[in-house]
Amino acid sequence: MAQAKKKKKKKQVNKWIMLIIGFAVFLILSVIGGYFALLYAGGKMVEMDENKLRDIKLEATKIMDVNGKELSKLYVLEDREYVTIDKVPKKLVQAFVAVEDKRFFEHNGVDMIRIGGAIWKDIRAGSAVEGASTITQQLAKNVFLSHEKTFWRKTKEVSIAINLENRFTKDQIMEMYLNKIYLGHGAYGIKAAANYYFGKEKAEHLDTLTTAEIAQLAAIPKGPSIYSPFNNPAKSKERRDTIIRLMAEQGIITVQEKEAAQQEALPTKKVTEGNSYQAFLDYVVDEAEERYGIAENELYSGGYQIYTTLNTDVQDAMVKNFENAKNFPKDGSTNQVDAGMVVLDAKTGGIAGIVGGRNYVHKGWNNALSLHQPGSSFKPLAVFAPALDTGKWHAGSQLSNKRQSFNGYEPRNWNNQYSESIRMDKAVQMSLNVPTVWLLNEIGIDNSLKYIKDFGISLDPTDRNLSIALGGLHKGTSPLRMAQAYTAFTNGGVVKEAHAIDKIKDLRTGKEEIRPVKETQVISPNAAWEMHELLRNAVQRGTGTSAKMKNWPVAGKTGTTQSALSSKANKDAWFVGYNPRYIGSIWMGFPKEDKGHIMYDGSGKTARMFSIVMQEALKNEKPMDFERPNGVSERHEVEENQEVATTPPALSVRLTIEGSQPVALLMWDDANEKTTGYDVMRYLNNPESAEKISSKQSGKTFVDQVKEGVLYKYFVVPYDENGNPGSPSNIGEVNTKQLEELLQNGENQHEENNSGDNQNSTEGDQSPNNGSNGSSEQEGHGNTDNSGNSNSTPQGLPNGNNGGNNQNNGQGHGQGNGSSGNGADPNASQRPADIPDPTQSTDPSQQGTGN
């Protein structure tokens, strides 16, 4: 009985052994069969398309605009020429082998040692950190395969590589590889790249490539954009020098040659004129790689049709007005004031237009994407929208507006005017700093930081301080990110990801790919609408009046940051705003500030640029109004204005002579019965540096002594018997550059305020507290240089750079980073000690940003 059981058990064991053996045999045969099937498939692909290996003609990828019309094509360089291996310097081949595939002459297309090493490194790192493709695999991928990153694609790559090794010699594979490899900037193959980077126009000139130039070419394939000597000189040189070191270690060059090559300078970028859409096309290429996984070289090799969000009416309007020097502040001694602008579809976040600079070139510096200090345009994101979203605050809430210290940080209002409290809508309208900082302190910095992150703005750890209320970011942010953040105010609190591509069609397979656009609910619909109303009021009556459009409503916020060289100048000027169709974000400033490059205009120029670009872009569209979303309640009604004046005083200024002394004669009219006195304010460039030259005087005239060769600007502020301020007057000017002519003529030349020649009367609407901008009134002074004086009549506030002088709080109490700083230096916006400023306090919180 026991013996029978043993036999039965033995049979069962044998049965399992046979099953395992059978399965193993089946698995081995399947693997072998699959291997040969893949080899066959790879061989078929090579056989059918073998001509592709030496074909240097590539079909351009088509770029379509938002209406489906062809916008442009992505072209490769024109001078493509197939170069045989005998014309390629031996050192160049050795360099590529050294860095890309050091066992190229030993393996059969797949380097198992390298694959094993890569897997081990990936395991240790916990993610994929190292590639293992051989030169043959790279050739297979570049010629025969699509961009899809799947297991089967990699398997096909291996199969094709093995077939290539069976069909061609190593020299033939290397020859085809060097003619097919993408080396950046539309250059395919070493011949085109040698010409583009080093001016080697003919194939026979390849022999003249230096060791450094050879290493430079070998450095690029790992990342054509990242390691381009034109795009990233520092990274490019670092990688080039690494390859030079590898060449020395492998005996390709001597130590002396290594040292000499590493001292060689990088190539100088060719200045080429880009087309009107170049910045947008560059962005499309980057987005295709980031969002769709299609590398730049695959786009340039053709076969794609990319449907984008670009609207040619918008882009053409932007380019046209960027070419008009009158739309910009005065040039510096050697460079122009530069700018960057982005326009998004207000509902979708699609990029309707983008301009990277006044002289943008392919893959050049893009001011629309680079980081700048946002100034007061950041206030809605850091303070007011988060406060409204809590439900505890509303447009009519009273905010503290008295001089005060926040643990040593003492912000100041641009106009030096304070009160016990002020309504939120008035604080936004006038771009006041004290109530903004006070409100941030109330809602909490950490709470604000969370909202800022959700709005899509990246921050530095050092940004955790009250200066973020005024845009005092350590690194700054870009016009694109600001425009994206403002989509929350046009979409019920939802931030729509800024994007340039709607879909990509692969013409070889017919497959269309659409990637969803990220949407984030940051604030409630009610908070978004109330913030919108505050921003609309800021344009209608506040600091952004230069952004007004004819027949189209506009909402938005200006912003400036103070120059590090002069408290009377600006480093950055901004406007971020929108109408029912588009959101626009624009920055202006010098690329590098020095004594010969100081910008004295404020955000009036940027607001004005927004207006003229949008007016032209929308000239063929029927005007629309903002619509309050369903379910959103009306905002709190604005209470009756408690200020003295509902209409600002009307100021005129003229240049005259008293005895032998030139003076500015100020006269104003004011029909408001409650007015009991006036402050007279004077400044040279920025209202934020205005000094009070007469306090609470009862008369309506004032005489000010002036110096020759200076442009003086004035405004007056009315007060009632209780000391409450009213709406400031318009800005009046005298230009004493014409003093000599005045003295010779012996007569008083003057130009009356509100004259018909004044181009900046802003449609003649003198609403109370209508904000003007420092550069806004300068735009209207077309005759300033040709007359003794000039007066503008902007809509209300005389503050081109409103928003206060407290941003430069990098020193002292650990509160800030200096809004006009450029990153790491927290004191970057301090005025140098050798530049005196009699109108400003030495307190670091008294210098800063505005409107």
Describe the structure.
The strands form six sheets. This protein has a five-stranded mixed beta sheet with strand order 2-1-3-9-10, covered by helices on one side. The protein has a five-stranded antiparallel beta sheet with strand order 5-4-14-13-12, with helices on both faces. β13 and β14 (582-589) form a beta hairpin. The chain starts with a helix and ends in a 60-residue tail after the last strand. By secondary structure, the protein is α+β, with helices and mostly antiparallel strands. The protein is elongated, with a radius of gyration of 33 Å. α4 packs across α5 (151-167). The longest helix is centred in the first third of the chain and has 47 residues, at 2-48. 50% of the residues are buried. Among the domains are: 52-57 and 77-263, Biosynthetic peptidoglycan transglycosylase-like (Penicillin binding protein transpeptidase fold); 651-741, Immunoglobulins (Immunoglobulin-like, Sandwich), CATH 2.60.40.10. The chain is built from 22 helices and 22 strands.
